[in-house]
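thread: overnight batch results

M.L. [08:02]
morning all. the overnight job finished for the chain we discussed friday. pasting input first so we're all looking at the same thing
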Amino acid sequence: MIDRESEVVRVSLDELQPDAPAGLATTAVASGGPKSYGTIHEPAEPVFHAPEKANFFLNAWVYLGLAGLAGALLGWGAVEPWFVDGPGRHWGNVWLMPAVVTLMCVGFGLADSIVERSARKAAIRVGIALPLGVVLAFIFDGIANLFFNLGLGIVFAAGVQTEHNPAFWMARSVAWAVFGVAGGVIYGIIGQSGRKTAYGALGGAVGAALGGLIFDPISFATHGGAVSRGVGFGLLGLSTGIAIGLVESALKDRWLYVTAGPLAGKQFILYKPETRIGSQQTCDIYLFKDAEILPDHAILTQKAGRLHLQASGPVYIGGQRIHSARVLDSGSMIQIGRYSFRYQEKLRQ
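M.L. [08:03]
and the structure it wrote out:
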């Protein structure tokens, strides 16, 4: 006779523990609380990173403003020594404004790439922005001069006879807005988005118009010459970049905000019908410094007014790993490796 009471089955906790994805750990309550080992029905939860302090310089209006400032000053500094005050058209006079606008555009093209730390994207964008900037700068320079002369004609017909009159400043403001449009258009073309181009053109026009409005008061304060041009063109680049960033942010429809990881504080505005996420530098959202992220880790697709996420690697939404395409709701929390995102949509009336 077999004594079945003596047959004791011993199962260790390790045998009960389901396989966890690489790089993820089971959760446990620290310092005295009961430990949670999961169940045979549920996968272990990943270790989520707490929201990190946002980096101020990852705001688009900040880094675009600084990029515009640097580019405009570089263009001014390269040509100013050959600029001649007074009558006549010297080559420095011909090239000054196009050089400022061209390098301002290059700055905008580089800005996103530098923030995202993608050398490959930077090289591609400079290759587009530099020749396109030269061509558009001269085209828009002609248009701006046309607007400026037209504005001066209206101002003089109204009886204004001095540059100290604010009406004269307005004529320059309108002309400079044209240069801002050029910068915004190139920013959008590099981003390969029609809407981004439109928002960039609007923001560029607003920012450059503000820069043009205060150019003459600055020249009065600095008594004209090279200093006033340097300050004025610097403000042109700065105000254009800031305005592009602010307008783009104000008019966005849907975006991902990075709450944790190396890019905490950065927002990715979702313009394209399809957005690729991964560790490959050519991805629309390039995630670096994480060996667990695949070259093409996930794809965001816009369909029928909703955003769908399809994962190729481990992706967690609201703490649950997804194994098929998922429709995202506004406020959804997403984790990919060490990066955490909050998906947001603009409220529709």
